[in-house]
Amino acid sequence: MNPCGYDIIGCMKAMIHTEETLRAELADRAAGAMMIAARTAPKAKGKDNLSIMRVDYEGRVQIAQHMRKMVEEKRAASFFLRDAANLEESDALVLIGTRIKPMRLTSCGLCGLGTCENKERYEHVPCAFNTGDLGIATGSAASRAADLRVDNRVMFSVAMAVLDLGLMGPDIRIINAIPLSIKGKNIFMDRR
Questions:
Q1: Which carries the bigger pLDDT value, residue 5 or residue 96?
Q2: How far apart are CA 181 and CA 145, in angstroms?
Q3: Model pLDDT, residue 5
């Protein structure tokens, strides 16, 4: 028996979905896969100081508006305007941030302060291992997007606006932002 009954055409239309109608869902799935890749990326001493988030459309618009405000207030360069337009046109946004906590792996001095004890007196100076872990997680996430053939770009301009807004909380001090685009042409290329 045909599950559509006599209305085969109407029933088939209800079963057919175009990429355009599923784009937001597909972008969210890609963002989820990126978040998994970032979370499972190797971390120094196995300690996870990362925070990983996905931002919805309304959030992306608010961040883009804040980027424009930062330019108006002369707190950001004019290319933030271009990046704000890219963000509004994007289909998803993944944020990856790190807390600043010395790993006490060694007193390596890579932070420039000699020892972890000295570094702890300067809470805003990043531990080299925290920033290294953030970079590895960001690379893993961007690589996962590339595996899925989703256009993406790591944008510090977007991250600066997110940091300025405090969207990831007060303990997240360094952020990378990765907007995603599923279009016929990569919106992150050929930019002025």
A1: 96
A2: 10
A3: 63
What CATH number corresponds to the domain at position 151? 3.40.109.10
Residue 119 lies in a domain: yes
- Domain annotation covers residue 163: yes
Which residues are bridge partners to 29 per DSSP? none
pTM for the full predicted model: 0.89
In whole angstroms, what is the distance from residue 57 CA to residue 131 CA? 28
CA angle 145, 27, 99 (to 5 degrees): 65
pLDDT, one tens digit per residue, over 88-112 is 999 999 999 999 988 887 778 888 8
- Each residue of 3-38: b (16+ CB within 10 Å) or e? eeeeeeeeeeeeeeeeeeeeeeebbeebbebbbebb
Report pLDDT for 139: 98
Structurally, the chain folds into a number of domains equal to 1
- Distance, in Å, from the CA atom of 155 to the CA atom of 173, rounded to the nearest integer, reads 16
Closest among 96, 91, 104, 78 to 163, alpha carbons compared: 96
Beta-strand ranges (E) seen in 33-139 are 50-55, 92-99
Contact predicate 97/134, CB 8 Å: yes
Tell how far CA 42 is from the center of its chain: 18
- Altogether, the residues listed in the chain come to a count of 192
**Tokens linked to 74:** 């002369």
At position 191, the amino acid (one-letter code) is R
61 lies in a domain?
yes
